Amino acid sequence: MSLLTPDAKTHVDPAAQASVPEKSRAERKTSFDVADFPLPHGREEDWRFTPVDRLTGLLADEPTADGAVTVEVSDQSVVAEPLAADEGVRGTALVPGDRASALAHANSAKALHLKLDAETEYDEPLRVTVHGNAGKRSNGHVVIEAGVHSKGLVILEHTGSGEHTANVEVVVGDGAHLTVVSLQQWDDDALHLAQHEALVGRDATYRHIAVTLGGKVVRINSNVKYDGPGGDATLLGVYFADAGQHLEHRTFIDHNAARTKSLVTYKGALQGESAHSVWVGDVLIRAEAEGIETYELNRNLVLTDGARADSVPNLEIETGEIAGAGHASSTGRFDDEQLFYLQARGIPEGEARRLVVRGFFADVISKIGVPAVVEPLMEAIDAELAAGAQV
Amino acid sequence: MSTIEELNPGLEGIGHYQFGWADSDAAGATARRGLSEEVVADISGRKDEPEWMLKNRLKALKLFDKKPMPWWGSDLTGIDFQNIKYFVKSTEKQATSWEELPEDIKATYDKLGIPEAEKQRLVAGVAAQYESEVVYHQIREDLEEKGVIFVDTDSGLREHEELFKEYYGSVIPAGDNKFASLNTAVWSGGSFIYVPKGVHVDIPLQAYFRINTENMGQFERTLIIADEDSSVHYVEGCTAPIYKSDSLHSAVVEIIVKKGARVRYTTIQNWSNNVYNLVTKRATCEAGATMEWIDGNIGSKVTMKYPAVFLMGEHARGETLSIAFAGEGQHQDAGSKMVHAAPNTSSTIVSKSVARGGGRTSYRGLVQILEGAHGSKSSVVCDALLVDQISRSDTYPYVDVREDDVQMGHEATVSKVSEDQMFYLMSRGMTEEEAMAMIVRGFVEPIARELPMEYALELNRLIELQMEGAVG
Questions:
Q1: Which of A59, A110, B37, B264 has the fewest CB atoms below 10 angstroms from its CB?
Q2: A1 → chain B, closest CA residue
Q3: How many angstroms separate the CA atoms of A175 and A158, rounded?
Q4: Residues pairing with A92 in the sheet
Q5: Beta carbons of B209 and B241 less than 8 angstroms apart
Q6: Alpha-carbon distance B126 to A293, whole Å?
Q7: Mean pLDDT, to the nearest integer, of B292-321?
Q8: What are phi and psi for residue B380, nearest 5 degrees?
Q9: Would residue A364 count as lying in a domain?
């Protein structure tokens, strides 16, 4: 008996047509058109950690429901005329990189527009409070424009519940100094998919701080590119994932101009069954970006059994003329020896755990350095630990 | 420097790619191109293989058709599977002494310096693979007495069928990936090693692989079994001539490291710059066992190679030391994969890469800690050195941790050669080129010192060649 099939002489290999892989992160698709981003099935590179099965409703192309969100701005003097899709600076910094962002863009006819006047220092933090209502879906697009040599701090607070896609588009003028803080203090059933993208001007300083404590599924993609040499970007993040939470942060620094700097520091703690955190940090150093400096750091502290932290730093470098580039990531368990040491000195276990976790977050929190953010954050972390201890 | 030349007569007078000559190619010229069931059956038939192997090969061919090409990593569009010669037989029967080899093959290996190594008894055993099959084989008598088996894989199947069948495909199944399927369908040659319980092979076993035919595919299959508490070090080197069109090297290496055993596998890959080098290498480690991969990638057009260790038993340990050089037109996409499947296992990956002349090096690795592998530790360190403005270096370290009681660290740095170092060396009378080569050698020294002496010397020489013309 022959083992061969009748046409054994010929062999057609349908899969032999190889495709050319993406040469760099810059080749990943970006588009304003929702149709360019089909519903993800979870095997795509940029969705492979995300529980897309929990997001089918949010990833459907639907407009904002009535009363889904209330948005308040603390200082009306910075609120400019809302921007339509091709109006003003809208679309210059942010081009959607995934379906959620494309939906947020397409379903936001008018974007909230905050404008910091040129040559002006804003002493008080500018607060934007976004409150979502349970069971309702919203799409949002915010444009923050910092004029030349302006200085300011914008705090975006997210509270309440519901399902939200959101874009935050930041244009930092030449020599400006802008800090954008995004606080995710959602209720435990909120879904939030966001793209934050900044275009950093010549010699400008941009700081982006993501603090994610609440929400069922939160995914924030924070991207930076430069509009001229000398820009400096710092991306900081703190997250605390409890049982059942999926907190995902992705950063992409596109060093497309010479002598630019970037520093990314994200730290997270996890506690509880199936708490899941994801950090993916991409850095691309283009051939023209000579003399740049970049460092990325992610550390995860796993406090209890059953939690999972994914950490992926990717670095692509197309020129050797750089001042320095590196990244580091680590995931470790709560160190029992430190706990023992403190307990041996008479500190009760609960208090000792609190000290160790505070110590873990200490350096990123000192980098944040914004009292309006830091104090409530430390309280919130203590509250998370206290809640965890009771379980 | 003269001592290096004395020790390595083969290294004299070598050009930019010193192994680029081609011998007359009577065997290759007549070999058929393309892939089909008939070709696979023909390979199996010529070797007079048992039916289970033929079935296995045909199954793998079907899997090969189904599997997609990798959509990540390097550009593989240049491979034309139907233009490749899948089996080229170069000699009628395997020689047991050097003199028995046909003249042209002997000359080839003389140029590579094998008989020197063998004559000096630097190595415990030598296998030389030319085209598809092993042409020369020798193992020291005392090792043979201890029960060490070191034969080519075809003889392994013939002479030790039971042992072979038990382990073949157990580490890398036929459907593992497209190129593993291809290898399983058309494999030929390679090494089959069995080290019995408690036996320590104290000097390295060695193999050389050479492609001589244009559009040739070399698909060697290596199977190493280290029984409990044994140890062995296997070293392979690879070269090919330079032809106008591309060749494919797609090996599969399976290693089984049993309880408490230790295997070290060293590769210095210096294929010519038109070889696609797409290799699947994997080891499984039982409790207390250690697997070490030492991986040097210098040649080839494209290399995609991620030696893996599956840590299956408690306290097993995996280690990869990897260096990659990418010159003009080269893409070294290399790294390592560590899968922690048992408690208290540990792994270390150290990767160093140098890119110059527009070449691209990528570190692509995976550390996976599965549920139940508590107390596991992993550390990944990647350093890249860029010597000019047009070269490229990437780091893609995937980490997948599904257990909480673990320690996991990754660090990467990319730097350029510092002007201070160059100035210091040049002020001591070195030319710019010498200074650059010295800095690069210093950069890879932590890996070079792990190599057997003659390989370390060769590596240094290859670095110098790679760095030639790198300055200015």
A1: A110
A2: B51
A3: 29
A4: none
A5: no
A6: 49
A7: 94
A8: -125, 125
A9: no
| CB contacts, 8 Å: A11 with chain B | 34-37, 39, 61, 82
| pLDDT confidence of residue B5 | 44
**Nearest Cα to B354, choosing from B376, B379, B334?**
B334
Residues of B in contact with A330 (CB under 8 A): 407-410
Could you give the CA distance from residue B268 to residue B206 in angstroms, rounded to a whole number? 11
d(CA B54, CA B45): 8
- Is there a contact between A317 and B415 if contact means CB atoms under 8 Å apart? no
Q: What stretch of H or E contains B456?
A: helix B453-467
Residue type, A162: G
CB atoms inside a 10 Å sphere around CB B321: 24
Residue numbers in B near A269 (CB within 8 A): none
SS3 B120: coil
Please state, in angstroms and rounded to a whole number, the distance separating the CA atoms of residues A185 and B359. Answer: 47
DSSP string, B84-109: -B------SS-BSSGGGS-HHHHHHH
CA distance A272 to A209: 25
- The string of DSSP codes covering B4-18 is HHHH-GGGTT--SST
User: What does the alpha-carbon distance between residue A58 and residue A54 come to, in Å, rounded to a whole number?
Assistant: 9
Distance (Å, whole) CA B367 – CA B379: 9
In this model, does residue A26 exceed pLDDT 70?
yes
pLDDT tens-place string over residues B388-407:
888 889 988 888 877 777 88
Range of the domain at A94: 28-333
Structural domain count, chain A: 1
Record the pTM. Answer: 0.83
| pLDDT score of B23 | 64
Among the partner residues B68, B75, B401, nearest to A309 by beta-carbon distance = B401
- Residues A302, A335: contact at Cβ < 8 Å? no
**Quick one: which of B355, B351, B320, B346 has its CA closest to B440?**
B355
Q: What are the two backbone dihedrals, phi and then psi, of residue B278, each rounded to the nearest 5 degrees?
A: -125, 100
pLDDT digit string, tens, across residues B37-70: 988 998 898 888 999 999 999 999 999 988 888 8
- Residue B189: helix, strand or coil by DSSP? coil
- The span from the CA of A8 to the CA of A341, in Å, is 72
Instruction: Report the candidate in A155, A133, A151 with the shortest Cα–Cα distance to residue A142.
Output: A155
